[in-house]
């Protein structure tokens, strides 16, 4: 009675990434009401800097109440459904995007398409760039949501680009070529590369070498590059973040074909911690793409109420600068807290300079070097030690034993408790295993 | 080497998909061309009194004062329920659960019940949130049909459906032809005929989509006809989608019968094929806030729609505001009643004004527009003449109204004229212009 899309499993919710969340929902940790409950370490949310936003709002009540100088703007906003977006908001957004890229790139507000979250942006780009049955190459490990967002309704395929812990999961030219050949063998036409920079789940930024490889590859194969830069505002340490746009500029590729084949996705969900407001965007230098994506955004527009509020927040440049700096400091210190805690018990974390999580090496705790053993370990961690961490296999990691742990969606005390539970886990394993 | 260069030249410079370059987004139709003319020369009482008056935009601006007053008297509605704006902010900002805020779903369910005079019950757990009805309609199409399948839609219908239901989904629309011989009511024959047409084109019919109250007719669908449509859908084992976006704009509560009432009366027998779309864009005049919902009696559809709604969630900030406003029963009852009465008055004003100018309208009882019959003055009863008349009205009379052909009306000469997106004064100016236009024609 329903369509194939409705009855297939491409919604991806049977993945372990989401199963862990379900277990957490059944028995959530609360310091007072349920201290022995499961701690949520699988949710990449930034809860560290809300006090800054709250104090801004306390001092600036007007935009919340639909007021601006000159009176109420309620009626105007209520009627504003233009898919080109609120001009004031797009202007501020373009300046904010430039600011977190140290102003190495400038963004034209007319090249921004607003969408209800980056989930919507990523899907819309697939609809615009590929036919059903065509493919995008995606470096592993990657965000599990892509299996749904890029493939479900679009019919587009993902062909993974393999990686290895031997070189810290970096992207290398031979892996790109291998993935491309693999797609050919499967009779899949490759339309582009889909990268996440900074990476989820690695929390690392792409080096200029990697960006060079990717750009050269895309030029050679005549394909697109989609760069999901949703975590660009969470870069808290060196090396500094290099956006794909900056890399193109450095290679003097403006006004060449590749310039119109590179598209950036971003959102305010991670750095500002506002996932509920559904504020995402596509940025591209291709007029044709912007035209198509803008019309498509009709299916997922951003509430004018939220566009207005954010235009005010981002328009307060003094506040935004302070927020960016303070937020980075707090993320850096949280990461340090988690990493040094784990190091004490012999658990190594991949060195990372961005993101809201760490990519940790739990191979020493595996009973065997297999994905079955990884699942076994994961189940033990959830049910016996009360921690929802995300297993690497759910990120399509080519090697077993790696897990992603989030560090910015809980209090310091809760993170501390989580680290102590990991100690208990390590203690219960074979002595000197780690 | 030379071959490679030629190949590169032949490739489109950016290489987009068929969906991206197709014109199924529909923006080249007269419906949108009229908007462009208005954008270039918009009427303003003071600064541009001879500009184009926009009568092609189905927006409800007659009851904003009620909303503004409410917000003034209840600042906690925008403050997450407290007296200070910052409190509750963080929970709300973090809330991205695709189930939607429970308080919001409860308030929507209650509002939908009130609009139907309590004649149907709605469970908050069957409500799926989407960023507007545009998203809801597309989402349902993805769930109920495969590419190449067909949905049957009675004509005339909202031009946006051509994009919303077909563009990215690859699903086809097969029109169910209705005409003025019986006030454009849907007949069994028309449904059967459309079904056969789909079959002859090798398209599998997956459902019927009705808009009730109808856009562009501005009239509610009679109970007997709703029952017939439901019976037809049951006999063919297909779905029935009822877009009830204008339900709160029926001029009197008693006149609107929702498919929900019919299902309740028969104890929900066969209801898993029925799905209702609703939004606050028309009744509350809030299209900018992107508040749409799908209400389905089918559990699998609810679950799947919820998952798919990840691509089109409502801002939690907006959900919070509306949860507050719509759970205030005293306010909503007053709003629904007052809004209806004002729309009815506007409708009376325009219909009387047109009658004085010698123009008849279809008898309407809902919506933000009337369905005007200009066929008597068409040079010839065909689409070209209708469009010629439309252009004349746009450029000479300076009114942007919507030609029936853009709504796929099979009878030429009908136009949709909106009356709720302007002040009474502006409406009077528009009616005067029409009066003069008709007089000039008579003199000729």
TL;DR of this structure?
By secondary structure, chain A is of the alpha/beta class. Chain A has helices at 4-7, 16-26, 50-59, 74-79, 87-99, 117-129, 145-149, 173-185, 208-221, 244-250, 287-296, 304-315, 317-344, 371-383, 412-428; strands spanning 39-40, 67-68, 71-72, 112-115, 135-139, 157-161, 190-196, 224-228, 262-267, 280-284, 348-349, 357-361, 387-388, 390-391, 402-406. Chain B: GO terms for molecular function: 1-aminocyclopropane-1-carboxylate synthase activity; pyridoxal phosphate binding; transaminase activity.
What does this structure look like?
The complex is a heterodimer of chains A (about 425) and B (about 450). Chain A has about 425 residues and is an alpha/beta fold. Chain A is about 40% helix and about 15% strand. Chain A has 15 helices and 15 strands. In chain A, strands 4-10-9-8-7-5-6 form a seven-stranded mixed beta sheet, sandwiched between helices. A four-stranded antiparallel beta sheet of chain A has the order 11-12-15-14. Chain A has a two-stranded parallel sheet with strand order 1-13. In chain A, helix 5 (about 85-100) crosses helix 12 and helix 6 packs across helix 11. Chain A is globular. Chain A starts with a helix and ends in a 6-residue tail after the last helix. The mean pLDDT of chain A is about 95. Chain B is an alpha/beta fold and about 450 residues long. Chain B has 16 helices and 13 strands. In chain B, strands 2-8-7-6-5-3-4 form a seven-stranded mixed beta sheet, with helices on both faces. In chain B, strands 9-10-13-12 form a four-stranded antiparallel beta sheet. A two-stranded parallel ribbon of chain B has the order 1-11. In chain B, helix 6 (about 100-115) crosses helix 13 (about 315-325), helix 7 (about 135-145) packs across helix 12 (about 300-310) and helix 14 packs parallel to helix 16.
């Amino acid at each position: 009675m329903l369509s194939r899309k409705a009855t297939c499993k491409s919604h991806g919710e049977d993945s372990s990434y989401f199963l862990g969340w379900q277990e957490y929902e059944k028995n959530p940790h609360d310091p007072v009401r349920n201290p022995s409950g499961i701690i949520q370490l699988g949710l990449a949310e930034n809860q560290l800097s809300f006090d800054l936003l709250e104090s801004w709002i306390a001092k600036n009540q007007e935009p919340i109440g639909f007021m601006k100088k000159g009176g109420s703007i309620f009626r105007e906003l209520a009627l504003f459904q233009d898919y080109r977006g609120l001009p004031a908001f797009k202007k501020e957004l373009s300046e904010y995007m430039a600011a977190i890229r140290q102003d190495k790139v400038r963004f034209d507000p007319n090249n921004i398409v607003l969408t209800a979250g980056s989930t919507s942006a990523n899907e819309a780009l697939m609809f615009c760039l590929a036919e059903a049955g065509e493919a995008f190459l995606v470096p592993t490990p990657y965000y599990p949501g892509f299996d749904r967002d890029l493939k479900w309704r679009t019919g587009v395929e993902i062909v993974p680009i393999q990686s290895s812990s031997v070189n810290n999961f970096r992207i290398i030219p031979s892996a790109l070529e291998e993935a491309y050949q693999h797609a050919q063998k499967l009779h899949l036409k490759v339309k582009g590369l889909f990268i996440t920079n900074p990476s989820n789940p690695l929390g690392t930024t792409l080096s200029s070498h990697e960006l060079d490889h990717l750009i050269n590859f895309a030029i050679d194969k005549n394909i697109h590059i989609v760069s999901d830069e949703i975590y660009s505002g969470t870069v808290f340490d060196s090396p500094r973040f290099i956006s794909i746009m900056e890399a193109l500029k450095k290679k003097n590729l403006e006004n060449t074909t590749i310039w119109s084949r590179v598209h950036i996705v971003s959102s305010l969900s991670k750095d500002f911690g506002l996932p509920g407001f559904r504020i995402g965007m596509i940025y591209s230098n291709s007029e044709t793409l912007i035209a198509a994506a803008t019309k498509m955004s009709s299916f997922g527009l951003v509430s004018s109420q939220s566009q207005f509020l954010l235009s005010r927040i981002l328009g307060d440049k003094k506040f935004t600068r302070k927020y960016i700096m303070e937020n980075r400091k707090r993320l850096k210190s949280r990461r340090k807290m988690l990493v040094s805690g784990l190091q004490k018990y012999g658990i190594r974390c991949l060195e990372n300079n961005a993101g809201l999580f760490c990519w940790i090496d739990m191979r020493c705790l595996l009973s065997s070097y297999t994905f079955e053993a990884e699942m076994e370990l994961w189940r033990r961690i959830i049910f016996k030690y009360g921690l929802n961490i995300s297993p690497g296999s759910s990120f399509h990691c080519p090697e077993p034993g790696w897990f992603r742990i989030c560090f910015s969606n809980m209090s310091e005390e809760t993170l501390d408790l989580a680290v102590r539970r990991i100690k208990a886990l390590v203690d219960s394993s074979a002595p000197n295993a780690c | 080497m030379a071959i490679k260069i030629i190949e590169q030249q032949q490739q489109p410079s950016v290489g987009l998909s068929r969906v991206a370059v197709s014109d199924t987004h529909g923006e080249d139709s007269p419906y949108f061309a009229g908007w462009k003319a208005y954008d270039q020369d918009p009427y303003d009482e003071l600064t541009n009194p001879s500009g184009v008056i926009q009568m092609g935009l189905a927006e409800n601006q007659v009851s904003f004062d009620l909303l503004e007053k409410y917000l003034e008297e209840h600042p906690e509605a925008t403050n997450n329920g407290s007296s200070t704006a910052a409190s509750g902010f963080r929970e709300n900002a973090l809330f991205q659960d695709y189930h939607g805020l429970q308080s919001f779903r409860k308030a929507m369910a209650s509002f939908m019940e009130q609009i139907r005079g309590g004649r149907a019950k709605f469970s908050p757990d069957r409500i799926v949130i989407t960023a507007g009805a545009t998203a809801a309609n597309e989402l349902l199409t993805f769930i109920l049909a495969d590419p190449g399948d067909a949905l049957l839609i009675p004509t005339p219908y909202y031009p946006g459906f051509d994009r919303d239901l077909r563009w990215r989904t690859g699903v086809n629309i097969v029109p169910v032809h209705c005409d003025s011989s019986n006030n454009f009511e849907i007949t069994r024959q028309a449904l059967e005929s459309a079904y056969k047409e789909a079959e002859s084109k090798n398209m599998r019919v997956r459902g019927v989509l009705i808009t009730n109250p109808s856009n562009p007719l501005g009239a509610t669908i009679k109970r007997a006809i709703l029952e017939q449509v439901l019976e037809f859908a049951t006999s063919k084992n297909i779905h029935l989608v009822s877009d009830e976006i204008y339900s709160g704009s029926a001029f009197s509560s008693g006149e609107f019968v929702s498919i929900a009432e019919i299902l309740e009366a028969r104890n929900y027998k066969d209801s898993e094929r029925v799905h209702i779309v609703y939004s606050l864009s028309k009744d509350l005049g809030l299209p900018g806030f992107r508040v749409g919902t799908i209400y389905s009696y089918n559990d699998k559809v609810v679950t799947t729609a919820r998952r798919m709604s990840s691509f089109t969630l409502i801002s939690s900030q907006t959900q919070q505001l509306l949860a507050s406003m719509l759970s205030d029963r005293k306010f909503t009852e007053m709003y629904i009643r007052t809004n209806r009465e004002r729309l009815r008055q506007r409708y009376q004003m325009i219909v009387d004004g047109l009658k004085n100018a010698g123009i008849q309208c279809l008898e309407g009882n809902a919506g933000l527009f009337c369905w005007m019959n200009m066929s008597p003055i068409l040079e010839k009863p065909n689409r070209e003449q209708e469009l010629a008349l439309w252009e004349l009205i746009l450029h000479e009379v300076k009114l942007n109204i919507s030609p029936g052909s853009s709504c796929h009306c099979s009878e030429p000469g009908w136009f949709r004229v909106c009356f709720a997106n302007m002040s009474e004064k502006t409406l009077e100016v528009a009616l005067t212009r029409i009066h003069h236009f008709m007089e000039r024609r008579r003199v000729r």
